[in-house]
Every structure is written in C-alpha cells, then in structure tokens.
Fold these 4 entries.
Entry 1:
Amino acid sequence: MKELKNIKNILFDLDGVLYQDLESVFGQVSNRMTEYISKKLNLNLKKAKELQTNYFHKYNTSLNGLMIHHKIDPENFLNYVHDINLNVIKEDLELNNELTKLKAKKYCYTNGSRSHALNVLGRLGIIDQFDGIFDIVDANYVPKPVMEPYKIFVKKFTINPEEAVFVEDIAQNLKSPKELGMKTVWLENEEAWGKKHSDKNFIDLKIKKLSSFLKEINILKVA
C-alpha cells in the first residue's frame, strides 16, 4: 500500500466496482441486451442469449460483436440496454466520504455509456466527485482490455500512467493499465469472468471493499 501514497489519479471501473450488487443492475442490462438481439436479429430469446454470451467472450462486449457481424447501431443499442430501473442502488455515504477526502483526481472508466455512468453515480450520491468520465464512445467503441482505449484515455486527460492506479472487478482488464505503468487493483469477486486471470502478476493489489481501500489511501496520504 505504501507505493500508493503519492498517487495523483485513481481510475474506477463502474459496474461491479463503484457498486457491487452487480446482478441487480447489470442483470437488467443483460436481459435488455437479450431482448434487443432477439428483436433485431429475429431470434428466440434462448438463441439471442447464446449469441450475446458468445460475442461477449469473443469480443469483450456483446456490442462489439454485434457491430462487427451485424452492423448494429451502437447508440441505439446503448440507449436500449441502459433503459433500466436503478432504484436498487442506494446512496453510499461511506464511499462518498472517502472520495471527498481523497487527494487525487478521480475518473470513471466504463465499457458502458456515459448516460448509464451518470445515472449510477447520481444514485450513489457521488456524481460530483469525478474529474472525468470515459465511456465506450470515447473509446471509439473498442472495449477493455484492448490497449488502444487506455492510451486514448491517458491522452484525453493528460495523465502520467506512473502516477495512476486502476481499480477493476474484471481482472483481465488490468493487463493493459499495468503495461502502461499504472498500479493495478482487483476488487475480489466470485464471478467467473471477473476472477479469470486474477492470479496473474499484472495485478498489484487485491481488495475486498472499495471504501476500505480508499480509507487506507487517505490514511497514507496524511501520514
């Protein structure tokens, strides 16, 4: 942890990191994806779900596969799948408190849309904490863990990777940040896709709770 004392930038993934009840929110998104694919490609829900899962594992997002093979309009897709009920997300006072104390710039980096990020951050009560949001549109629809979007992010916000730390719940998404020179933090979870490659050496730290991790950084910074 001591190596994080002088960190100037912290990058947070959105879903599964800034809130951890992934199924209640992203479960809805996943169901909307299945519905969208079913309607657009005239498939029954079972076949649509199979295609959705196949594209996710092969292309890192289902949208990426749909754009490559079916010329799906990404904006239309994102608007549809993120039209969900976020009442399950409650204000996180503890996280807000630690983010307020944090003497570093804070960024949200998501494979989802900016509007979804803003909606989630608003529900959490932390929307004003962030110095920037980087979404899949900013990444030219190229998802993590491909290197190029991370380079675009660094250039967009004029960040020195060696002064940054990236927090993710999907372990393999930390490979490129590590190669850029960032410190990497995996938020432990039992989701099969999330913990895949969590034993690799491109992960510097493993944590169980985000607010507790930030509290440790805040203690370091004033020590």
Entry 2:
Amino acid sequence: MKKFNLTRRTLALLSAALFIVTLLAGCAGSEDATPSDGGNSSDPIVVGMEISSDGVFEARDENGDPWGVSVQILKDFGEYVGREIKIENVAFDGLIPSLQTNKIDMSLSSMTITDARAEMVDFSDPYANAYLAILASSGSNIESVDDLNQSGKSVAVTTGSTGYNYAIQNLPDATVLSLSDAGACITEVIQGKADGFIRDQLSVYRANQQNPDTTKAILIPFQSAEHWGAAFPKGSDELRTQFNEFLAFYKEDGGFDRITEEYMSEYKTAFDELGFKWFFDFDEE
C-alpha cells in the first residue's frame, strides 16, 4: 500500500513538473517569435506604409481608414494569396528599420528601389515608374531646379525619400528642410516658408491643383524613371515571390488599368496632355 501511495505521489509530481516545463517552453517560444518570412497563411500580412492626410497612393478616406492606390493593390494581393492584410501607419524613415527588426512583413509606400536601400531590404519587381518635380511657392522666383540651388533658397523634402537624396546631391547651395511627411512639406511651401518641395510628379501636380493660388508645378528635366517596389526583410523570399507572381498576374489581368480608372483617371488625362509618362506604362521600359 505504501508502495502504491509513493508511486502515485511521484507520478503526480512528475506530471506537474512536465506541465510546468511545457508551459515555460511555450512561453519562451512565443516571446522569441518574429515574422520569419510572412508566409504563414494563418496570420495576417502586416504591411507598413506612411499614410498621408492627402494624396492618392497612401491616404485616408472620409472615415480615416487607409485608402488609395497602394491600399487597393494590397487588398487585391490579399485576395490573390487568400490572406488578411493588416496596414500599419509608419513614418517613411521608419519603414526600413521596421522591416529590419521584423515589426512588419513588407512595405508598400511609394518607395523607390535604390542600391543603398537594396543593401538593407529586398525589393519586389517594380510596380510603378515615377519622375521628380518641384512644387514651388507662387510668390517665389523659382522657374527651374537651378533656381533652387542658391544661397538663401530652401527646399522641403520628406526625410529618407529620393527627393531628399536628390536635394542633397544636386542642390548644395540651398537649405534642405527635411520633414517627416509630405503634408508638412506642402504646408511649408503654401505658407512661403520653403521655396520648393521635391516629390514625384503626381504628388506635385495634385498639390498644385489643390492650391493653385499659392503654388506652381515645375518639372525637373533629364531624369531617369524611378522604379517603385514593395520592400521586404532580407531573406523573405516566399512572400516576395508571391508578390512578384501577383504583380505579373495583375498586369496581365488589367489590374493597373482598373486602378487608374478608379483612382487616377483625371490625372491620367492630364499626364497624357502634358506628355508625361504614366506610372504604369511598363511596356515602355
């Protein structure tokens, strides 16, 4: 009898110990877990983008929800792979650090593919082509990019953007105002605190149309197209491959034509009249 009681107590203690070890192991596993490749179909795909109060690519609707071209592309991508998309609002200069620390699975935020960025993240195939332009204060004497490159002139740019890189490399005599988002840059120009804001043509055109009395749009000639791509943590080959396959399907299926019609038809008309290359003219590459 004593032998049975001892065995029962021993088994109980062993069972309790095993339960505690299993519980601790489970907690440790969840604490160390990070988005490894964005490929777990049971989890949402967490996407970082800088959501602006204005714009047509990464903006908000009347309810404050993410809206625009990039958001629609993500929704269609989610349907293509059968996964939920969760969008996180991240300042542009925080997107790459968020990818490097696996806080997000990917980013789709009008980010230009550059060699420097490609050393830190992996890019998808290009999903859009863009050129830079200047939004200038209507009260300034700025008529070309050379007019900005003078002592006493100031140019607003979004921190970490290709507009920022362009200003640093090509406007050494100007004062470069590096701000956190595009809306702040536009406000600086409207209020006459900055002589110009360098951004992609569509953003500049749109801002000028909305503020015709206080701004003017100026093209920067002799540029090569910027290629925008989705960015992924290094080594996220599965999710990046899925996105590239989606882009190929989307082009063939007329997805970019539908997006243009729904979100950008008036801008497409204006670009055609001005002779500008459109964002999704991939066949002309």
Entry 3:
Amino acid sequence: LADELIVLELYIQLERIRFDNKFDYTITINDSVDTEAVEIPPMIIQPFVENAILHGLLPLPEGGHLSVILQKENNTLLCIIEDNGIGRQQAQKNKPVVEEKRKSHGIEITLKRIKLFNKEHLVSKGVSITDLKNAAGKSMGTRVLIPLAWENAF
C-alpha cells in the first residue's frame, strides 16, 4: 500500500501540473492503517482517481477538489475517492460522439480485479459508485467506495 500511495500521489501531482493546478487534493490515511503492513493489488486506486480528474474535475470552471481516504473497516481496507466535479450524468453528456464509439475498459478490468482479489480472501463486498447531489438534486460530484480484503504484508 505504501508504494501504491507514492505512485498515486505522483500521478495526481503530474495531473495537477498538466492542468495548471485546476484542482486540489487531499489524501487522508486513518490511524488504523499501517501502509507498510498492508498488501493491495497494484494500480487498483489510480483508475478511479484518473476518472475523477478527467471526467469530473477538469470540466469544472474552477474549484475542483479530489479526496482520497483510506481506513480499516472490519476485515477490509476501505478506499474512498470523492470529487466535487460535474457528476457522471453530465460527464456522459460531455463525451464526443467519436469517444462514445470507443469503449474504455480500464474501470471494467479494475472492477474484475477487485472482485477476484476479494473473492480469493472471502470478502463479498463490491465497489459502489454514488452520484452526490444537493437537496435540489443538482450534481455535486461522485463518491467511489472500494473495499479491499485486508491482506497483511509478509
């Protein structure tokens, strides 16, 4: 997990530079998580962060924020990725016609990898993606909850 977080932070920093600091971010690690003592499959969090940045935050005129939170919950490492972007419905509308014909498989493959990893460790929880809305029903971003089997490093 420690290595994955280093790579994730470098990726986010590169995207911030690439897009003129259009968004800010926080990575919060709960005290119950020892990043050196937990194993996770490589490149599990990054595709969801990439989607949040490219499809949620970049279309905002300003004030984008990305939050990554890691906490222990029973026998899982819970990764929470949240953005205050335009939301999935608007992001879908923004896709050019050419892009709609070309299906990306990054998230689909990552979801399958998570399912296999969790199944191997007898964890039945799956990834959940929630559209965040205010009281008036206006989109306020997206939240992704990724439960990963708690696997101690050896």
Entry 4:
Amino acid sequence: AADAAVATLLALMVTDHGECSIGGEVPMLIYDARSGAVKVLSGQGGAPLSPDAIAWYMQHGIPAAGDVKIAPVPAVVDLCITALQQFGTHRFADAATPTLALLDAGREPWHPDLARTLRRLVETEARTPGSRERRLQAACDRFYGRGGGSDIADELEAFYIEEGGFLRKADLAAHVTRVEEPVTVDYRGYTVCKCGPWTQGPCLCQALRLLEGFDLRAMGASSADAVHVAVEALKLAMADRDAYYGDPLYTDVPLAALLSDAYTAVRRQLVDMQRASAACRPGDPYH
C-alpha cells in the first residue's frame, strides 16, 4: 500500500498538476496493519533559513499566490522516499515508472524537465551499492544536495535566484521528513487520526469533540439542525486554529487543552441552535 501511495503521489504531479506538484507539500498518514499503529509523515517544507528572507516576510507579509517567494522547500521527493524506506518494499525506479510514462507521452513544456529530474534519481539509485534503503537515500540526497555537490540542487538554486526567490541549497539540504504520532480523538466508537497542528487537521478533531454533545441521530441526517450544528462546530474549531495552530517546532500549541473535556464543554455552550454566528470566536485554552 505504501508503494502504491508513492506511485500515485508521483503520478498526481502530472495528472493533477496545480493541485499536486513536486514543489508542494504532502501530509501523509499510514496505518500499519501488523502493529495496529498509525504514523504521520510530515511532508511540509520549511521556509527559507536566510535572515534576509525572514526580514522581507516581516515587512511585506505572505506573498501572493504564484510568487516564488511563497515557495517552501519542496517536500514531495523526501516524503516519497521516506515512505518507501520505512513502509514500502519497492525501489524508487518502480514507483516512478508510471509517472515517467505519463511525462514521456505528455505535451506540457515542463514535462521533459521533470522526466529528466526523475531519471537522474533513478540512475543514482541504480549505481549505488548496498541495501535498498541506502540506494533510496542516495537518490534522495542527489535531489536535496546533501553530502556534497548536486546538479539538481544547483539547478534549483539557480532557478530560485533567477525568479527572485529566497530558497537556497542550504535550505534543501536541511530538509527532513519527520515521522510523528497522529493527533487522535475518539468519536462515537471510532478513533479519528489527523496530522499535527502544522496542518489544520486537528480542527476536525476539535469539531468532532464539540459534536459529541449533540444528538445528531435524532436531528436526522442532512437536516437543517444537523447541518447547522456541524457548521457552528467547525467555525469554533477554525477560530482556535487561526489563533493557536502553528509549527510545533517553533511554537507551543496547546493541543491537549484544545481537545480536553473541560475546554470542549465550555466551547459547546457557544453553539446557538436558533442563530448562526458571524463572529470569529477563539477560546482561551490556557485558562
């Protein structure tokens, strides 16, 4: 399943380009049937490390969509290879074969460039001695320029400089896919797993906790009351998202409090069954 997921992610870069691309990010959850455990792969690229870049962001804010200054470190390649190493059985060459067929048959001007990049990773994997995991790592290191020079990392840096972006080879080399525990809540007999607060995933957990206090079955599926209470729960959860979520490597997210019984009970009282709220109402999980 992990091999198939990686092959699908790579293919989506071609078939659904715009929604999925090699320069984007990938939050992934994997359930291991043997251990019964769920793991999160954090395929989120970091911001540039340069103090000049940070100063620019502080002065100008988040750039508009399409501006290369908004680009994080491309995380897809490292996540795909991490998934193959830790959960899969295939080579990168196997996972990339369907995507290369799509690229070779395509007509977009960027298709040959991406095909060339993927083939260089396949070549590195093939000529590296040792275990499957070691060969996969060598292919990954070529993309991110770890352990010395890399033609791909050099080309990426040249592109960022030409387009006015801030990312550099040091940013690429520093990137790593973190393997984490999921955020979980129990909801009506189900364990719901989401990625951490570096995504907006936990706000679904918050909304489900709020909905536990309402008799949705009695309201009826898709009834006005059921839709109303679900929307109001999401509003409250998303208000907390905007106020408290962030990269847990750099900020203390009070996730345990946000999902606690006491906090949920207080927030649930804000749902008015007769009126839709138009206000953004984050709570105070610290008190």
